[in-house]
Amino acid sequence: MSDTVESVIVAIDGPSGTGKSSTSRAVAAALGLSYLDTGAQYRAITWWMISNGVDVQDPAAIATAAAKPAIVSGTDPANPTITVDGVDVTGPIRTPEVTSKVSAVSAVPEVRARITELQRSIASSAATGIVVEGRDIGTTVLPDADLKIFLTASPEARAARRSGELKGTDVAATKEALVKRDAADSSRKTSPLAKADDAVEVDTTDLTLEQVIECVVTLVEERRCATENTENTEKPAAR
Ligand SMILES: Nc1ncnc2c1ncn2[C@@H]1O[C@H](COP(=O)(O)OP(=O)(O)O)[C@@H](O)[C@H]1O
Ligand SMILES: Nc1ccn([C@H]2C[C@H](O)[C@@H](COP(=O)(O)OP(=O)(O)O)O2)c(=O)n1
């Protein structure tokens, strides 16, 4: 085995509440990789549109404003950060208002083009590699990723997890909102939520978070070994 570890790009996609963020952060931390939450970037641009009075039901207005906010993502899995025009928006991007409007904003092609370019630039500058999580990472943003994972879970399990986070919220209402957002994200024209043909699907409904993390860490390590073996067999034999 070679001493130098190759940089590795991991794409993790799936609907809301399947465990993308928790799994991606833990896998990145365990393997010494960077971490990027692309949903936070779409939430950040949505927060900016709301804060600046842009009508989120007006795709032309959103398209015109799409280039204005400066969005910066910190990629340390121990402390992921997100700022808009220098303002820390970690808390504000998780409000119910942003959650209910993010699908409309993120469906606008000009928004996707801008955020996709940002994501590719962050991924290409990650020295040891990166775990990038979202909805279209394996299909559109990083189609050449070394490993693609598509997480799924039943709507009931996902709603129970989300209501557990947002204390006091009704599980049935959470499930309804979540299914509605999935439908909007899956049916938009530009890079919808979808499983890449070469992604490994992991159903997390009956798995603990620890089991999912272990499964993905194993898949990354297997992929790294496979890549190293291919490189070794391609090299001419040492004399
Ligand atoms: N396999 C699992 N079993 C139980 N709870 C989980 C599991 N995976 C994630 N969770 C919990 O569900 C919630 C949503 O997870 P998150 O990682 O934010 O999902 P996503 O990024 O896909 O929306 C979090 O509170 C997380 O701790
Ligand atoms: N790569 C991505 C990531 C997120 N989005 C959009 C669609 C999602 O409903 C929102 C919010 O994503 P986020 O991952 O924060 O969603 P959850 O809070 O985990 O449910 O952003 C997207 O269009 N493409």
From TrEMBL:
Keywords: ATP-binding, Cytoplasm, Kinase, Nucleotide-binding, Transferase. Residues 10-221 form the Cytidylate kinase domain. Gene3D superfamilies: P-loop containing nucleotide triphosphate hydrolases (3.40.50.300). It is found in: Cytoplasm. CDD domains: CMPK. InterPro entries: Cytidylate_kin, Cytidylate_kinase_dom, P-loop_NTPase. GO terms for molecular function: kinase activity. It comes from the Bacteria. ATP binds at residues 14-22. Its main location: cytoplasm. It catalyses: dCMP + ATP = dCDP + ADP; CMP + ATP = CDP + ADP. Its EC number is 2.7.4.25. PANTHER family: CYTIDYLATE KINASE, CYTIDYLATE KINASE/PANTOATE-BETA-ALANINE LIGASE. Belongs to the cytidylate kinase family. Type 1 subfamily. HAMAP family: Cytidyl_kinase_type1 (MF_00238). This is Cytidylate kinase. It comes from Streptomyces maoxianensis.
